[in-house]
Automatic annotation (TrEMBL):
Keywords (A to Z) from UniProt: Transferase
Gene3D superfamilies the record matches: Crotonobetainyl-coa:carnitine coa-transferase, domain 1 (3.40.50.10540), formyl-coa transferase, domain 3 (3.30.1540.10)
Protein source organism: freshwater metagenome
Single GO MF descriptor: CoA-transferase activity
Protein name, UniProt field: Unannotated protein
Chain ranges passing through the membrane: none
Coiled coil: none
């Protein structure tokens, strides 16, 4: 493994970041909201994360994992989404714990949560509760199916727990992509549902900050994962309305092909591209063959005729060579990389997209994490801090924000309110 950018280092000239001074109190767990707040933190925001004293963020228990200095598991989901945050362990089920959050809220610009819809209100930490103590608050809720709208209407799925795969399935894309007679492929792109929802949440928070500054009024941002996935898989609704229901068969060729050292992908969805492919693979006569006169025909004849010809041509070249030949011929192609190839890719190295965090459990190789894909001229990247251990900053934050003294902290800890 070749780490390209280490936690604690800075690339570029240090200076102000666009969200310097913005403070976020995050009642969050798993991936969608933690990714959003981590992204905002990379742009300069300060993020204080509230976790349960009993195990913390559920992402800590995911696998694979490493151990923290106390021997507790820190799972991959948590490691990917919590760089440079402060962790405060508060029991939100206790009245004193809830009061601590209400006392903390006025010290922050944004309070955000991704509890199951209705759960945060039952804890008396919903929008109305927080705005009562912080009249200029930005409150962002991220859930599977959103909260009730102003007219009182609510989702029929509102009580369902929703992880990424659930809303991905409900978006229609699994059925559209499913091979006949086969079950759907679940989570084909890792965290598509989580990270896409995170990005819309981050945009919503940024827009709300702008609106609050213009109006001095509180703002409520409500992002439903199901809504986001319908937006991300936009072809499902759009293609259906245009007569292509539940299929992509008429689109053309979008598939993987075998070269001498693995697979590359090729996309042929326009007639001029088809003509170029015929020339590259040595089949110029196919350009005038009426069997291949439509895009749907390319799909129908992919397996019996097109794939054997393309792969016979490709067997003498590597994936990289195939893609260089195809792209130089005006086509769209790219190699299918392995994990090691991604980690050692020169493009990613130049753009500081692989971040290395030193392990704390005695193993030499660092934990590797994706970097920040937002590049702004003149804006330095880093320094980032490692993920926080559970409750690592509890005393520090409560002393700083609420001026609690040692005796009070000891008493709260003895009661299990904080950890």
């Amino acid at each position: 493994m070749t780490p390209h950018f280490n936690v604690g280092t800075t690339v570029g000239s240090p200076g102000p970041k666009p969200l310097d001074g913005i403070r976020i109190l995050a009642l969050e767990q798993m991936q969608a909201l933690p990714f959003a707040t981590q992204l905002l933190g990379r742009l300069g925001a300060e993020v204080v994360k509230i976790e349960s004293p009993n195990g913390g963020d559920l992402g800590r228990s995911s696998l694979p994992a490493m151990e923290d200095p106390s021997g507790r598991s820190v799972g991959a989901t948590f490691l990917r989404n919590n760089m440079s945050k402060q962790s405060v362990a508060i029991d939100l089920k206790s009245p004193q714990g809830r009061q601590l959050v209400l006392d903390l809220a006025p010290h922050f610009d944004v309070v955000c949560e991704n509890f199951r819809a209705g759960a945060i209100e039952r804890l008396h930490l919903g929008y109305e509760d927080l705005v009562a103590v912080h009249p200029q608050l930005i409150y962002c809720s991220l859930s599977g199916f959103g909260h009730a709208l102003e007219d009182g209407s609510a989702s029929p799925y509102g009580e369902w727990p929703a992880l990424a795969a659930v809303v991905e399935a409900m978006s229609g894309i699994y059925e559209m992509k499913r091979s006949p007679g086969k079950p759907p492929t679940v989570s084909p792109m890792g965290a598509l549902g989580d990270i896409s929802t995170a990005l819309f949440s981050a945009i919503g928070i940024l827009a709300a900050l702008r609106l609050r500054d213009a109006t001095s009024k509180p703002q409520r941002v409500d992002v439903a994962m199901f809504d986001v996935l319908v937006a991300m898989t936009d072809i499902v609704v759009n293609f259906s309305s245009l007569g292509m229901k539940g299929t992509m068969a008429g689109v053309g060729i979008m598939d993987g092909f075998l070269a001498s050292d693995g697979y590359f992908i090729l996309q042929v969805i326009r007639e001029p591209q088809w003509a170029k492919l015929c020339d590259v693979v040595g089949k110029p006569e196919w350009k005038d063959d009426q069997r291949f006169a439509s895009r749907s025909a390319w799909t129908e004849l992919l397996e019996p005729e097109i794939r054997p010809v393309v792969e016979e041509w490709a067997k003498d070249f590597t994936r990289q060579e195939c893609c260089e030949i195809l792209t130089s011929g005006g086509l769209i192609a790219g190699p299918c990389f392995s994990d090691d190839e991604v980690i050692n890719d020169p493009h990613l190295a130049d753009r500081h997209m692989i971040v290395a965090m030193e392990r704390t459990d005695g193993l030499a190789d660092p934990v590797l994490l994706p970097g920040n894909p937002i590049k702004i001229d003149g804006l330095a990247e880093g320094p980032e801090r490692r993920v926080p251990w559970l409750g690592e900053h509890t005393d520090e934050v409560l002393r700083r924000e609420l001026t609690l003294d040692d005796a009070t902290l000891v008493e709260l800890r003895s009661q299990g309110v904080i950890a």
